[in-house]
UniProtKB/TrEMBL annotation:
Species of the source: Pseudomonas endophytica
Principal place of residence: other
Signal peptide: 1-23
PANTHER family named in the record: FIMBRIAL SUBUNIT ELFA, FIMBRIAL SUBUNIT ELFA-RELATED
Stored Pfam families: Fimbrial
Family: Belongs to the fimbrial protein family.
Keywords, ordered alphabetically: Fimbrium, Signal
Chain ranges of the Fimbrial-type adhesion domain: 30-183
GO cellular component, one term: pilus
Compartmental location: Fimbrium
GO biological process: cell adhesion involved in single-species biofilm formation
SUPFAM superfamilies noted in UniProt: Bacterial adhesins (SSF49401)
Identification of the protein by name: Pilus assembly protein
Length: 184
């Protein structure tokens, strides 16, 4: 009987020593970008010329969405590029620029999902269009804009709420959308 107790005690002691030498490992992801230009871009409200990174969408009643893929509440905004702000623009060789917007994608992957902010609207996404009315898909370059080497260039877009399913329910309808301007 004494021998079996000794084996149990010895086994427990080895188990305790074995766990103290246990180590874990993992990975850390770092994300970033090294850019070739420090050309500042301003977000402009063409209606009153105010500059800032907030585009105030208009309020839209949920009942105005009566079918899927209806756009309501358009808000125009521009990305302004100034040649005197350190942007390398060549007057002899006119430059163009494209804009890529990216954010949390909707189910189609083309548009921008509404962020979950406590009481979000349901059945709507945000869609961005260029000045020709063409949709600028999430993560896809826009059509090119001609840039002026001597004066400001406003690259104009319009944001809409788009019904993605019915019924659309009331709630906050906001999204964080990043952008990258590529000068060619």
């Amino acid at each position: 009987m004494n021998i079996s107790r000794l084996h149990v005690c010895f086994g427990l002691t080895l188990g305790l020593f074995g766990s103290s030498a246990f180590a874990t490992s993992g990975n850390i992801d770092f994300e970033g970008m090294i850019t070739s230009s420090t050309c500042p871009i301003e977000i402009v409200n063409p209606g009153d010329g105010t500059i800032g990174n907030l585009v105030n969408m208009v309020d839209v009643e949920a009942s105005r969405f009566t079918a899927v893929n209806q756009d309501r509440g358009g808000k125009t905004f521009s990305l302004r590029l100034s040649p005197d702000a350190g942007c390398a623009l060549d007057p002899a060789n006119p430059n163009t620029a494209t804009v890529t917007f990216s954010g949390l994608a909707d189910l189609t992957g083309d548009h921008y999902a509404i962020k979950d902010s406590g009481d979000p609207a349901k059945g709507v996404v945000i869609v961005i269009k260029n000045k020709l009315g063409e949709i600028v898909k999430n993560g896809v370059e826009s059509s090119p804009f001609d840039l002026s080497a001597t004066s400001e260039t406003d690259m104009e877009f319009e944001a809409f709420y788009r019904s993605s399913s019915l019924p659309v329910s009331a709630g906050t309808a906001s999204a964080n959308i990043g952008f990258v301007v590529k000068i060619n």
